[in-house]
Amino acid sequence: MSRLHRALLRDLWHLRGQVFATALVVSVGVGAFVTMVSTYRSLAAARAEYYSTYRFADVFASLKRAPDSLAVSLRLIPGVSAVQTRVAENVVLSVPGLAEPASARLISLPGGEQGGDSLNRLHLVSGRYPAPQSDDEVVASETFAAANSLAVGSRIGAILNGRWRELRLVGLALSPEYVYEVGPGMVVPDNRRFGVLWMNAEGLATAFSMKGAFDDLCLSLARGASSRDVIDAVDRLLAPYGGLRAYGRADQPSNRFLTDELGEIEVNATYIPAIFLAVAVFLVYTLLARLIAIQRSQIALLKAFGYANLRIGMHYLEFALLIVGLGLAVGLILGGYFGAGLIRVYQQYFHFPVLRYRLGVSLILFATAIALAAAVGGSLTAVRRAIRLPPAEAMRPEPPRSFQAGVLDRAGLMRRLDTVTKAIVRNLARRPWRAALSMLGIGAAVATVVVGRFMFDAVNALMAVHFDSAQREDVTVTFNETRSRGAVTSLRELPGVLRVEPFRVMPALIRAGHREERASVLALRPSDTLRQLVDARRRRIDVPAKGLVLTRKLARMLAVGEGDHVFVEQLDGRRRQFTAAVVRLSDEPVGLSGYMDADALAGLLGEDAPISGALLQVDKSREPALYASLKRTPAVAAVSIRSATLQTIREIMNRSFILMTIVMTGFGIVLVAGVVYNSVRIALSERGNELASLRVLGFTRGEVAQLLLGEQALLTLVAIPVGCALGALICRLLVPAFDRELFRLPFALTGATFGFASLVALGSAGLAACVVGGRIAHLDLIAVLKSRE
Amino acid sequence: MSASRIPLPVMQVRGVSKTYRLGEVEVHALRGIDLELRAGELVVILGASGSGKSTLLNILGGLDIPTRGEVRYRDHVLSDASDRELTRYRREHVGFVFQFFNLLPSLTALENVELVTEIAEHALSPREVLERVGLGDRLHHFPSQLSGGEQQRVAIARALAKQPDVLFCDEPTGSLDYPTGKRVLEVLARANRELGTLVVVITHNAAIAAMANRVVRLSSGGIAEIRVNPVQASAEAISW
Ligand SMILES: Nc1ncnc2c1ncn2[C@@H]1O[C@H](COP(=O)(O)OP(=O)(O)O)[C@@H](O)[C@H]1O
Ligand SMILES: [Mg+2]
Predict the structure, then answer these.
(1) How far is CA A207 from CA A88, A135, A158, A200, in A?
(2) Residue B22 Cα, ligand 1 centroid: separation in angstroms?
(3) Which protein residue's CA is at the shortest distance from atom 4 of ligand 1?
């Protein structure tokens, strides 16, 4: 080992506190980056593999009913490579051990088992496929079974086409269509109350009187085929058969969620590591600049001995590289560890046959390259200073720090401060960039904590609007097809029902110019109270007697505003078409809809105001009896229960958001502690003599600490509002990422969040300051009498 | 200072020794020092480099404690005082002037003095003290804008402003040129004369001894000689 290298190690050891703090910040940055990118890649790879191995379809469509012979025409559409027609129904289940009724999607299996070329093939986890002739055997989604502790051999009750049946679980499986297993219109998975069942095509067709016919289909595209063109062709073919707009993978719910989640990880993978690495660059810079200032005379000596500038520059660059390298190594390990952990978390939500965690070599190289760039970036200016130092000048001690009366003095602002505060303010003002960057580093930490709590606040705000203002029913009952208004009577007679408000949901295609969107139009009555339209300020909007109210998001997608006209095409029933004026825009946070007055809609459609279901207000004490009846009520296709949904959302929030808060708070603590610790250490190194001489003059440790730590305290105090504003800005920028068709997160942050972030910053700054502050006790009072500053 | 009056001892040093341990080696910096410092005196402690001057001053100034022996300031025993008690002693009774000034670079001359008067009980007006040391026109200059001699005079003003009972100066002219150094000595002598402050000056420069009431010469950690000057030379009169 050369002497310079030995000196390097000695310096590293001597500055170990700051080396550690800087390496820690690097390691968290690298760790966050590796965690998120590796998680992203693992999920994306698992998805690609799953989709191709199990032949996930490209286009999906539902319809009322079409003869099997139509499959031939579908197959002939140019660009279609395989077609799979099926029967798929929504049914209500009675699951042992579950008080409430559950909902399920019951899907037919082609030919009773998995043909070699069938699409959306199941991954059978246990058991077997239903026997060819059976009419009560089903395969259940493993997720649903696990959530309800069902196993092969378990029995569940179901109403199939109005008849009570007992189904036997013979197998448990996963499907590429349900990687994210949510029921229709749901945002969060409720695996106890929604599941997927697969049954023999024969048996299912018989039960639903669909022999020789189908009401659902999926198809795959030939290589290079246009999904748009195929969808249009499918729609033309299915129109006479009650076709409800075909859609591609991008709109397939499970795939959509997965894609959105991946997008979210990608966003997090960019800005969080970027904050850390920026702070790391700053810390490397300050540390190296200080080291070079201390070692001026050594540098001069080396130069006088004939060491080349390049060699000396390399020496300091190596110093930076070693620190960052240390952080990098730890960061890679952390990233691998937490990436694998995050994958385990995702396994609870996304169900793949194989979800393997992979940390590829390319990612390691990429992270290394970024970290090295940070090291070089941070050391460049400082190293250049070392190289430029002329040997003769370097032999002289560091010149005394010069101060001048600044703007603050001239403005007379300093006059009212006490002397210690003056010294603090001037020290900050003398290096405005360093102060600003320290402040920004602490601010970034505060922002990180704020962002970590954003989801919590936003979802709470969403739920407040959704459940308190927009959807106030206790139970939603959806029929398997539209019924006459008389059906309400039977619902009124159910136990515990206090109020029944029937609704009509019309699947529709809404067009404006060349844009069109599939959406449903909900028919409401002026007397309705359970379902309400609300504006951005949660005020009730009355449904107009004529014309349409659109969800603001839907209006934006159609590029229309209040006063514009849209063209509405009914997708069920008689497929009527009409033009309607957009009268108002509403701001409900979940779902996309059009809203019309029930009578107005019935008039336009020439219908006798049929109903699709009803909203119920129920007596809490009689819920069990109500649920028991609903499980056996024929013609009900789905039941959704507010309290159960709320509970599920709360559980998920508690599980994932609290984890998020903890992780982001940890990030914030590391950032604040890293910045404050390093700043105080550098201040101590620069002004140790100054502080020691004050101790000689009889200043107490506390008074000296005040002078040393006051700067950081001031910076932290300034950084807190800045960080809160920065955090709010980041959240504001994140909001569009959650402006989705299924739900829209509001920009909401509570005072508790800002308060929490501020406390985290104060606490960790205080802790870091205490660690360094302890050194004040060890200031060498005697040395200061002898040495020059 | 009239010779007829016998001033009271302010500080008493009895049998003080200081031993530094450097690994296996023991360095005896002081060996059994006995000394008394009286109110209003100007004492010069003289000695070659390494003779123990600074060590003695550190112990007198409450920065260090002796290995053996007793140091008293009036009725306080400093030799076994805690850090807190020593801090209070320095804060309330002692002024220091360092070889390298040790002013806070971020504060102006006036503010450097105010820094100390803010924590002192019977402080003089910072402006007046600065005027007294001849810096009335330099109040708002930062240390980096002052010459070495001016900085040292600020340091003296800072030390005097709180009206200390004892003023300790370790090589106060050590880093100054001849005329500037003389100017600084003049200020110290005046403070001693006009304020009656007990001033202890450490130096290896024998010429300075002429301005003292008493000269204590150290050699190898012991007192080689204590000499009383019947007449004190003025600062202008001495030269080296
Ligand atoms: N902290 C210390 N550790 C070890 N030896 C010391 C220490 N301080 C002083 N010495 C030694 O004590 C002796 C007296 O030093 P000092 O009082 O500084 O002398 P002077 O001020 O007269 O030059 C010297 O030999 C010196 O090396
Ligand atoms: Mg000395």
Answers:
(1) 12, 8, 12, 11
(2) 11
(3) B20
